[in-house]
Amino acid sequence: MKTALYTVVSQGDVSYVASQKAENGQLAMCIVRLREFGGGKQDEYVCTLFGNLAQCKFYKNDLVVASLRFQVHEVGEKCYQEVIVNDIVKINNM
User: Fewer CB in 10 Å around end: N or C, the chain?
Assistant: First the structure.
């Protein structure tokens, strides 16, 4: 897990996926693109927000502190990297 300061590059629309753990059988999710804070070319991450976090609205250049969880899963013979936001808090607008 990695917790750091990021700026928001963009956020997609909220969609819903089937989930046996959710009360109504659907779980909110959205994608947010985060850039590590600092000058120059910083690393960027395309992350998934789930549940209540997916309902939060972030705007371009918002400064946030986020805790990211990195996972790898296999489908067939291919491996995929997932970056999931465990927690995110907006600091202010830049």
Answer: N
